[in-house]
Amino acid sequence: MHEFFEKPFVNTKVNVVWGEMDALGHVNNVSYFRYFETARIDFLKQTGLLSILSEPSHSPVLRDTYAQYKRPVTFPDTLHIGSYITDIKEDRFTMCYEAFSESQQAICTMGYANVVMFNMKTGQKTAIPDNMLDILKQYEIGKS
């Protein structure tokens, strides 16, 4: 088994489909942001955060998102998106992603999203609720 699967990630399996390839014959860069979105929602489901976020007043909002393309991916392939948390602050955190290609047995793309907690009733940033913070800390990597 590859070392990728030994890391403490929440893993999401994504099948590459033909329609995601571009004129150059590899997966178009925009597809990775969809993969990361799928992994982000799966992270929320697998960790139980999705049920906590059913409270309509608190919502995580993307501040920005980033991708670094390391290797081109082509159809057919299956990607495993490993998600984890870094840089937790009072009202924000960073969710990181590593996309591992089954056919290449290598990480093909890495990325992150900076996420800010918002109170949707007031339109203002708010502190991460304690019950959510407890879960995020379980998946935090890189903290000394």
Automatic annotation (TrEMBL):
Keywords for the protein's UniProt record, in alphabetical order: Hydrolase
Transmembrane residue ranges: none
Cross-referenced InterPro entries, in alphabetical order?
4-hydroxybenzoyl-CoA_TE, HotDog_dom_sf, YbgC/YbaW
Q: Which CDD domains does the entry mention?
A: 4HBT
Annotated Gene Ontology MF terms? fatty acyl-CoA hydrolase activity
Q: Name one Pfam family in it.
A: 4HBT_2
**Which family does the record claim for this protein?**
Belongs to the 4-hydroxybenzoyl-CoA thioesterase family.
The entry's protein name is Acyl-CoA thioesterase
The beginning of the lineage is: Bacteria, Pseudomonadati, Pseudomonadota, Gammaproteobacteria, Alteromonadales
